[in-house]
Amino acid sequence: MERKKKAAKKRPKKKTTKKAAKIVKDAPTENYFILANGQPIKNVKELADVLEHLADDVFRHHVTDDKNDFANWVEHIFEDIDLAKEIAGTKDKHHTRIVLYKHIVRKLK
Fold it and tell me: Where are the alpha helices (DSSP H) in 12-68?
């Protein structure tokens, strides 16, 4: 007696919006953000992850009262003006990380 094989259930694929794809997608190699310590950053999530252990002097090299290199990178490479504006308003690593992670979560919903 032959048993009928049950059809394998397929998991529905998660739909990724274009905006969400930009957030998790790596920048082209020539547009990686290179930190003052030489470490390359490929995407927005990686930036958020790196900020947790980034030395204060390296952060201060990129974020001052007059400039925010991270905001500029996000705006020009990922073309995410909203996130760039949010990051531009941050002046410390912790706050920047929170802004980045919240933005990523919003985009992935």
Answer: 18-24, 44-51, 56-62
* Alpha-carbon dihedral angle through residues 82, 13, 28, 93, given to the nearest 10 degrees: 50
Spatial contact of 44 and 51, defined as CB atoms under 8 Å apart = no
DSSP H or E run through 33: strand 33-34
Q: Is the pTM of this model over 0.85?
A: no
The angle, 0 to 180 degrees and rounded to 10, between the axes of the packed helices 93-108 and 44-51 is: 150
Residues 99 and 87 sit within 8 Å (Cβ to Cβ) = yes
pLDDT digits (tens, 9 = 90+) for 38-59: 999 999 999 999 999 999 999 9
Interval 3-14: pLDDT, tens:
555 554 555 555
